[in-house]
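Tokens in:
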């Protein structure tokens, strides 16, 4: 269990100055960076100091949970379409490698290199981008259901 301390004077500090239904980017960055080392922990608790109004507390709880639920939905959507894109690119890479066998000299080398570059991009995406996105998804799921305590 990890507790993240947050000090707020009022609800407006937690919201975007242009849209009060959106979490402030600075607060979002603080929460996610402070939570990053808690991925192995069971749960995350936000300790918020300074909000004594019950309505503001309820609004903030809803705001935080909704914000991270939306991020979870967004990453799930990206993963879904990214898988289709990877399959198409893999087929393209294999096709380019097969086409390279049909030519001789320069065109053969060109298609072979292009095919392997496409295949490498897929491997890179799976190993680096995909893993980072899975880690972020795990964090956002925890934050979407985190416990929020108010201290006065």
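Residues out:
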């Amino acid at each position: 269990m990890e507790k993240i301390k947050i000090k707020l004077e009022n609800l407006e500090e937690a919201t975007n100055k242009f849209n009060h239904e959106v979490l402030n980017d600075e607060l979002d960055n603080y929460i996610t960076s402070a939570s990053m080392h808690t991925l192995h922990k069971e749960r995350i608790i936000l300790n918020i100091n300074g909000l004594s109004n019950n309505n503001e507390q309820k609004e903030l709880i809803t705001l935080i949970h909704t914000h991270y639920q939306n991020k979870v939905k967004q990453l799930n959507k990206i993963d879904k379409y990214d898988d289709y894109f990877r399959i198409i690119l893999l087929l393209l890479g294999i096709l380019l490698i097969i086409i390279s066998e049909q030519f001789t000299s320069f065109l053969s080398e060109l298609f072979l290199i292009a095919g392997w570059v496409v295949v490498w991009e897929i491997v890179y995406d799976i190993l680096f981008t995909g893993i980072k996105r899975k880690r972020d998804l795990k964090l956002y799921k925890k934050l979407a259901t985190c416990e929020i305590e108010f201290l006065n």
